[in-house]
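Entry 0007
Protein: Cation transporter
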Amino acid sequence: VADYVIGMLGQNSSPFMLLIAVFALSVVMTNFMSNTATTALLVPVSLSIAAGMGADPRAVLMATVIGGSCAYATPIGMPANMMVLSAGGYKFVDYAKAGIPLIIVSTIVSLILLPILFPFHP
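Output (structure tokens):
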């Protein structure tokens, strides 16, 4: 999987592109399955990708964890979302209306701060 992702990004792609890819994959997966399962599946892949590119894995791992916590757009990704679904009379689309803007903000903030807090090449 790691080799496939690196191949898609290109051999000379920047670690920042890797960060974006891992974050995006993590966000998409966590909205359709458990955030714990998403993170458990992606941590080994993220480590392999970072090693394959010669980058410090800390930023990539944090992108995996933070992206895996962005389960805002569906009731599936987080148990608390499912608990309030029927109690609040919400529909599936209500989660997307509220969650997508939150995901966009989380993505922008994360992609700005992660390379600063965890440089790719310390």
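Curator remark: The chain is about 75% helix and 0% strand. Residues 2-117 form one domain.
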